[in-house]
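I have been asked to look over a protein record a colleague put together. Alongside the sequence sits a line of tokens, each denoting a local backbone shape. I have pasted the whole thing underneath without changing anything:
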Amino acid sequence: MDTALALDGIDELLRGFMVRSRSKVRSDRLRTVQVRTTDGPGSWHLTITREPLSVSTEEPPEPADLTLTGPARQLYLLLWNRLTVEQVERSGRSEQTEPAEQAGQVEVSGDRDLLDLWRDTAAIG
């Protein structure tokens, strides 16, 4: 999958599907996720509350609870629940001398419990 297609797929998922009222991505307390691509112009800030997901392409001044940074293709597969975070982190570990973005690795920083919330509730259906 090329980068432009992956970027479009991430944007469609986050700003097209996950913001709808029937989306199940919810939290009893305010949670934030920042998704940043390393190989294209893509950045999304997700605000998770009891209401439908809110998504902005603006970078907020405060850090997110969870930040996912990596190649668009890997982020696309992770966010669409096609790969687990362990798979996208592992995919870059075979070439330790390469930068993470060239090796296809996703960097995860912050509250990893949000990955479980995403995996369990982010579904299209």
User: Anything to note?
Assistant: The first strand starts at residue 31 and ends at 37.
